[in-house]
Amino acid sequence: MAELTLVEAVNRALAHELEHDPAVLLLGEDIGVNGGVFRATLGLQQRFGSARVIDTPLAEAAIAGVAVGMAAMGLKPVMEIQFSGFIYPAMDQLINHASRLRNRTRGRLTCPMVLRAPNGAGIHAPEHHSESPEAMLAHTPGLRVVIPSSPARAYGLLLAAIRDPDPVVFLEPTRLYRLFKQEVIDDGEPLPLDTCFVSREGRDVTLVAWGGMLHEALAAAESLASEGVDCEVVDVATLKPLDAETILRSVEKTGRCVIVQEAARTAGFGAEIAAIIAERGLYFLQAPVRRVTGYDVVMPLARLEGQYLPSVARIADAVRKTMEAE
Amino acid sequence: MPAADKNAKLADVAGAAEGAQAEGGILAFTREQELSAYRAMLLIRRFEEKAGQMYGMGLVGGFCHLYIGQEAVVVGARMSAKSTDQFITGYRDHGHMLACGMEPRRVMAELTGRRGGYSKGKGGSMHMFSREKNFYGGHGIVGAPAPLGVGLAFADLYRGDGSVSLTFFGDGAANQGQVYESFNMAELWKLPIVFIVENNRYAMGTSVERSSAQSNFSMRGTAFNIPGRQIDGMDVRAVAAAAREALDWCRAGKGPFLIEAQTYRYRGHSMSDPAKYRSKEEVQRVREEHDPIEQVRARLLAGGIGEDELKQIDAAVRRIVSEAADFATNDPEPDPSELWTDVVL
Ligand SMILES: Cc1ncc(C[n+]2csc(CCOP(=O)(O)OP(=O)(O)O)c2C)c(N)n1
Ligand SMILES: [Mg+2]
């Protein structure tokens, strides 16, 4: 057992799969000699060779397309895109090919590939270095979208993603890469995909979050506890397919829900969760569902970043308003 | 103009190479032209050194990609261009902006995220523009400036005013597919565009050898019938000569032209770069044997210019840079309400 950061846990999961499954290979820009921008693949090329840990030229669209071809042949490519904002050039291959291979071949082929990318704010850089494009991806039929919130969940969910027969977009919260360490048992045990985790139990209100924002939600829950408000916190973890049952069960218990999302507000993934609660859990509610989100603006440079990101204070405020409503 | 005034201006070198004789792949610069090149390159060098220091002090937010070592590329190109031509590049853009005559203080203030920056302190190092100076960015997506530059060139041809789009990108960017889609359109429509590949041998930590099947980038347009020149991008006279040839080609209506400027970046890719992919000796060798600024300095001294005059230039450059740094340190940060400006809501 070892105390690992999230980025180290990713590294262990990759190493585990490379070691146990010859079909697994990694490809991406600067992942070999350099070990990746965030060093997620550090040492893996030395250990597994450059035929399996492949430094590619700068070419996101082709990297994604090549991965689809590899996957069609039964290989299990895990591609790294340096920042989630650079997924956009690969979107065509992801949406038009990766996500549809199974359906288009009527099940004769599947596409067991994983696209990993750092996601969200965290390095004080604007725009494409701090994007949160998960809703666009979750909107695409045929893709799984997974966002871990801790080292242990990153390890277990990444194992499951690599073993899954369908394409998985695995978005790693940049902000959490080295934020804290956690016990991770490197035993090859996956965590279930398509499952939400209850990260904190509570009676009064359900906070739903994923990735980096889970920690803001937990911190808000902590501070609200001193005011006598008992929050339950749900870590969505797999956005698509969504485990609505876990969220609905929690809302049934608490009767109140605040959804926290770092991405811009309009048509964000929080809206999907709110819609599901409206469809299937309306009568559980004692107050309207609230969302705390990023704004509908382009992610700015460092000095306005704090202004943009949902803060503990903004979340706590939303919870208080929810508690006041009758 | 007295020397002191020129030193104080130091900015745009557009057209400075005019009249220089072409011989043996270079433009034979007059002393005045050598001095223009020297001032402009030195300003970029000192500006970048200061930007690096400010980054180290935690004053610069986000990324900071320094142009040190590559100064001759943009300065040589600018000296043969007109101020009405458009310049567009990627994220290693500070040098391009200074060569286009953009204000050092406003570039620096953008790095530090201040109100007076070219993007109001919201864009940072990679994203600045100036319509007045025909500088169209400043783009963070590697390879994307190529088609954008083709669009600029399309507008040039459409308006028929004889302007040319100078579109810069790196050796790494040259492997992006959209670059070739751009080459095809540019030649098909005979657009006035000069593609300039700044081959500094590395894309982040990946060397050209490890990423490129055809590492002679000047031949990358061959399949589209785009003429190419591979040149010593550390010699500002060679860049100016190739740029003049390319610009004449474009202005004569013959379509695009490709230049591969072989150059080198001295610093890391960005400010956080472990530099495990190359040796210290390699960097040292280029600095000692090929430095673009030292070459001009040596020629000026050999031509009889006094150390004094060069010292005056040095002092003037340092003044501009330290004034820029002061401004960038003391200018106020953007108001929080700026989050909601210049965006459709
Ligand atoms: C589409 C895209 N992919 C990846 C990156 C990350 N990235 C930024 S610069 C760079 C290397 C580019 O190298 P090159 O084109 O040679 O230019 P240089 O940095 O040497 O000036 C990479 C991979 C990016 N900004 N955009
Ligand atoms: Mg390069």
From TrEMBL, chain A:
Record-linked SMART domains: Transket_pyr
An annotated Gene Ontology molecular function: oxidoreductase activity
Pfam families: Transket_pyr (PF02779), Transketolase_C (PF02780)
Ranges for domain Transketolase-like pyrimidine-binding: 4-179
Cofactor requirement: thiamine diphosphate
Coiled-coil stretches noted in the UniProt entry, renumbered to this chain: none
Keyword set, alphabetical order: Oxidoreductase, Thiamine pyrophosphate
PANTHER family per UniProt: PYRUVATE DEHYDROGENASE E1 COMPONENT BETA SUBUNIT, PYRUVATE DEHYDROGENASE E1 COMPONENT SUBUNIT BETA
Xref: NCBIfam families: PRK09212.1 (NF006667)
Name of the protein described by the UniProt record: Alpha-ketoacid dehydrogenase subunit beta
Organism: Methylosinus sporium
From TrEMBL, chain B:
Gene3D superfamilies assigned: 3.40.50.970
Any matching Pfam family: E1_dh
Name of this chain's protein: Pyruvate dehydrogenase E1 component subunit alpha
E.C. no: 1.2.4.1
Domain of life: Bacteria
Function: The pyruvate dehydrogenase complex catalyzes the overall conversion of pyruvate to acetyl-CoA and CO(2). It contains multiple copies of three enzymatic components: pyruvate dehydrogenase (E1), dihydrolipoamide acetyltransferase (E2) and lipoamide dehydrogenase (E3).
Oxidoreductase is among the record's keywords: yes
Xref: CDD domains: TPP_E1_PDC_ADC_BCADC
